[in-house]
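Readers of this paper often ask what the protein records in our data store actually look like. The remainder of this section carries one protein's record, kept here as part of the documentation.

:::
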Amino acid sequence: MTRPRILSGMRPTGPLHLGHLTGALDNWRRLQDSYECFFVVVDWHALTSEYANPSDIRQNVLEVTIDWLAAGLDPARSTFFLQSLVPEHAELHLLLSMITPVSWLERVPSYKEQQQEIQDRDLATYGFLGYPLLQSADIMIYKANAVPVGEDQAPHVELTREVVRRFNNFYGRVFPEPQTLLTETPRIPGTDGRKMSKSYGNAVYFKDPPEVVREKIKPMVTDPARKRRIDPGTPEICPVFALHRAFSSVETQAWAAEGCRTAGIGCLDCKGRLIDHLLHRLEEIHERRPRYASRPDDVWDILREGSRRAREAARATMEEVRAAMKIRYPVA
C-alpha cells in the first residue's frame, strides 16, 4: 500500500543547532516510519538572502546533510536531495508565477518580517518576493500530501493550498492540496537568552564536542533576579529552565524548578544537571557525525542518488503539468 508523501527542507545557511533538532529533525525521524519522505536542501532558497556572497553555500550543503545523517535520518528510508539538482523545481515555479497574484506573495507574514529583521542586506528583490512560491513549487512537484512545519511556517503551506486550487481550477486536477502537519516546536533559547540562531552567535551546534557544549552552557544567562546564590528565582522566565524542558527528564525539571524557586540550588548546579542531560541527548549525534564528516564524498553520493530519484518524480509531474496546460509540443 502506497504511503502518503511529505516534503520538507532546510536552507544551507550554516551548521545545525539544538533548535533544528527539537523543531524539525526529531519529528522528521519519526515520520520516516509512516510517510514516504522527501527531504531537500534548498540551496536556491539560500540565495534569496545570500545572493551577494554565495561562496559558503557549497560547504553548508555538506554540513546540513551531515547533520541530518548524524541526527538519525536514513537515506535508505527517505530521499535526501539538493534542490538545484532538480531543475524542474525552477520550471514549475516559473509556470506557477504566471497564475499567482502578487498580492498573495506580499501578504505572507515572513515577507515583511524578514525585511525588517535582516537590515544588512537588500531584500527588495524579485527572488525574495517570490521565494514562498518557489516553496510551493518544491511541495507541489512531488505531489506532497502533507508538509511538517511549525506554526510560523503554516502560512506558506496555506499559500501552497491556494495555488493548488487556482491551478486545478484553470487546468484540471493535477495536484493534491497538501495538509499542514503542525510540529510542536519548544522554544529553544540561545546562550544569551534570545532565540537560538547562528546569526546571533548564541547557538550550540551538533558539531560542538562535549567540552565546547560545557563552555557554552556554563556562562549562559539565567533569571536576572538571581543575583546571589540565596536569591529565589522564577524558572518560567529562565532560559536555562527552557532548555531543561526540552532536554531533561521530568524528575530533573521538577528538581530544577523547586530549587530555583526556593534558592535551594544555585544556577551553576542547575546548569551542571542540564549539561549532563544535554550531552546524553547528543551522544549518538556526536558518535555518528565524525563518521560522515570524514567521508564527504560518500555524503555527496547520497545527495546525488537522492536527487536522481527526486528528479524522476519531478519529471513525471512536469509531464502532467505540461499536458494539463496544453504546452506539450511535438518538437520536444
Observations:
- The chain is about 55% helix and 10% strand.
- The radius of gyration is 22 Å.
- The mean pLDDT is 95.
- Residues 5-188+296-325 form a domain with the Rossmann fold fold (CATH 3.40.50.620).
